[in-house]
């Protein structure tokens, strides 16, 4: 905390002197004069449609759509802000829990680009690619309490030039935090529901303390039992934000967010497991003796196979390592991977930032932000693949005296990253010129360690705790990433602002380094690799046909930098594999063109867009074995992908209390090259559909609000998705329905502002596969990489002041 406080204080002082050299991302059409933090500029709902379900990006030369805090509040409290975006066209959102917050299972993709090929920011601060085990950021469910999100903006195809991201081949998703209230206030709420779900939230706003100084503190808590199997998922969060009005000069704001998240995992499934054990198959955390028995049986099987191979098929004289257990799994279990004992993830994060928004002259404005992020995390599996030997240490430091068939395997994370981003805009007449940049230094450490388990009636370790006293370290790597990005953009307004033209470019240089700490026998790669492109152009045009209709078009090029990690990217390969590809490995690139029309007439607004994407230098990582083995993947450039499609959305407020929203998207994403491995086997075939890319998605929502009463029902259809590159395995399409109903007390009295709400997720109790690719994708065949979706669940919430 001392480190964070010192850094943020330094940034606050440095911000006044920082030259215009770093990046931020105001809208293309934003004037140069308003004074507010980036969050305040973007968080206020669009004035022309403050109560609409979504805002369809009018005035933008790109496909941009957003949802507000009002929309997020209609979901079950504690739901991820990502879940509120799933209704938008082109958004493929998957989650196996009702909140969309269980990170191992959460996936979001746009127009065929998966999560680690998108860009994510919070108030302009980069969140990295938000993948599980994030190496350069953190998930939005940890970065901020969902009730404090004021606005979420989705650019399906081309993010703003100044977006602080080097992974946004596809679109960007930007989150903007709420601003402190002008008057003192206390708000809060509580939720209870299925599977012993308890959710609480409280926020205290100071109001204006004098001189334009105001702020808030808030706290959120969530605990819920898993909907299948044994285990819990819980989270503590705290957010603080303060804003100081500096008069005509501008404003200064700062935030500090904390999260402690601990969750027990659901078991990854394959079709074989589902056929034999059903969608409700899960880890067996409530039965430690059974897990030991399965582990011992597997190790007896492995020992017998090794013995017979060495003795020409004979088992005469074989002595099992675990006497009295045999080589037959307990009834109902077919493989050692059917069910593990337990798995989990623990994450602790601090994220802070300071922003100066300054009017340097009437024509010249500057927005500068400094930020720091500190993370500690562990992901764990209790595994029969690494048994415990006698003599290893327990969590408390005592000696384990007898061997065990199980071991506790972790992947351990630590992130310490800091950076600065700034944007300067100069407006003269119809012309606005922007120059900006972003610098970040990230030190990421990652280790694979093993801890001892006992042969006892109950487990001696808890996956919800940070582990101590390892008996082995497989690898312990230190990964550095230095990022430099800049952008230049010019926006020109002509014909009385009916015609807006913007054009510019960005450049990026990212250097990745990997070293291994001593005393490990790691097979993983070390070394240096970089990605550089100083000219990535973007251009757009917007023409207002009438006050109610506009057309737009844009073109953009992007590069995705390499990732520094032991579990993804070029350093996840063996040293020999890295040495083989380092000289010829190229960063992924995309070229996107889109165009469309928007209409807004009274209570009706709609948009339609068509797009084409050329994705080249695609990096393909092939999973080797089940995820629990942790085998190094195979990474290569694997040709290109061509994607084209269309998106249509409409919002119609039939009369003031009743509004309808609907969207449809069509995506055709196909591999353009046939790829073979070293043996000549086809791994990817030209013309096949990109994995995890549904061709059709249809979403709809009805909202009724009248005299304090609120009712909402939404439906989400997604067509089939392939989870093999050769398209021989897929999961079928599904329709999911959510609903909520509530009442808010208006008028005077003690109940003023009190609201009660009931909500239900998966209303039809659909049995379906939610997430695919949890353990990566293979060329063909079944794979333990599927996660089941949650059944119907009910929640009741009581709120005050939202």
Give an overview of the whole structure:
Its main location: membrane. Residues 62-171 form the TonB-dependent receptor plug domain. This is TonB-dependent receptor. It is a multi-pass membrane protein. The strands form seven sheets. The chain has a 22-stranded antiparallel barrel. A five-stranded mixed sheet has the order 1-6-7-4-5. The protein has a two-stranded antiparallel sheet with strand order 2-3. Helices cover 9% and strands 47% of the residues. Mean pLDDT is 89; it is low at 1-50.
How far apart are the termini? Answer: 31 Å
Number of strands: 37
Structural class: mainly beta
Our Rg estimate from Cα atoms comes to 27 Å
Per DSSP, the total helix count is 8
Overall outline? globular
Q: For the residues shown, what is the average pLDDT?
A: 89
The biggest beta sheet reads: 22 strands, antiparallel, barrel
Helix content: under 10%
The share of residues in extended strands comes to over 45%
Low-confidence stretches: 1-50
Task: Based on the model shown, name its key terms.
single chain, 802 residues, mainly beta, 5-stranded mixed β-sheet, 8 helices, globular, disordered N terminus, Beta-barrel_TonB_sf, tonb box, iron, transmembrane, TonB-dependent receptor
